[in-house]
Amino acid sequence: MSNYIENLNWRYATKKFDASKKVSAEDLQMLKDAVQLSASSYGLQPYKIVVVEEETVKEQLKEAGYNQSQFTDASAIFVFAHQTDFGKELVDSYINHAARIQQVEAGSLEQYADLMKNALLNLPQEAKAGWTSRQAYIALGNLLSAAAAHKIDTCPMEGFDADAFDRILGLKDQNLHAVVVAAVGYRSADDKMQHAQKVRRPQEELFITI
Questions:
Q1: Against a cut of 0.90, is the pTM above it?
Q2: What is the CB neighbour count within 10 angstroms for residue 82?
Q3: Residue 204, number of CB atoms within 10 A of its CB
Q4: Phi and psi angles of residue 53, each rounded to the nearest 5 degrees, phi first
Q5: Which helix (H) or strand (E) covers residue 181, if one does?
Q6: How far is it, in rounded angstroms, from Cα 112 to Cα 204?
Q7: d(C-alpha 66, C-alpha 63), whole Å
C-alpha cells in the first residue's frame, strides 16, 4: 500500500515531456490492459480510446489543442471518446460477449439485460451522453494510476477543441465524441513542475465520515 501512495505522490500533470524518450510497445500494451480492466457501470464501457503515436496526427491534435507542447512531445496520446447515444445494441453486445466469456447461454443473462435496458434506454440523449462520459473518466483514472506504478508520466487534458478532435480522428461517424485526453511519456528534466509540492485538500475537508 505504501508503494501505491508513493507512486501517486510521484505523479503529477507533466507539463513538459522529453520528446526523445518513447514509451516501449510493451509498456503501452500494459497501459491498454489497465484501461481495459477499468470498472464501469454495469461493465458496459460505453467508450473507445484512440491511442495516437503517429507524429503527423499528433501535430494536428496539437493545433486543435491550443498548441500545447504535450501533444507532440509526449510519446503517445490517449484520446477517450464516449458514445454520445446508444440503444439496446449496447446492452445486447455486452450480454453476448459475457455469455461467450462465461460460457453460458445468453438467455440465462436475460434478467440482467432487462435490468440494464430499463435503467438506461429511456434516458434522454443528453443524460445518456453525460453517463457515458463519466464512465470514460473512470478509465482515465486507471490509466493515470497504472502509469504512475511503472514510473511513466502522464498529463490529463481537457483543454482542446473536442469537435476538431472528432474530425481529425473520424469519431463522429462512429457515434463518439472526444471528452478527455491523456498525454503519456517521460518528463523532461526542464519541467519545473516536477519539483513542486503536491497540493491537495486536507482530509478533514475532503472526507465526511458518518
A1: yes
A2: 26
A3: 8
A4: -115, -20
A5: strand 176-185
A6: 39
A7: 6
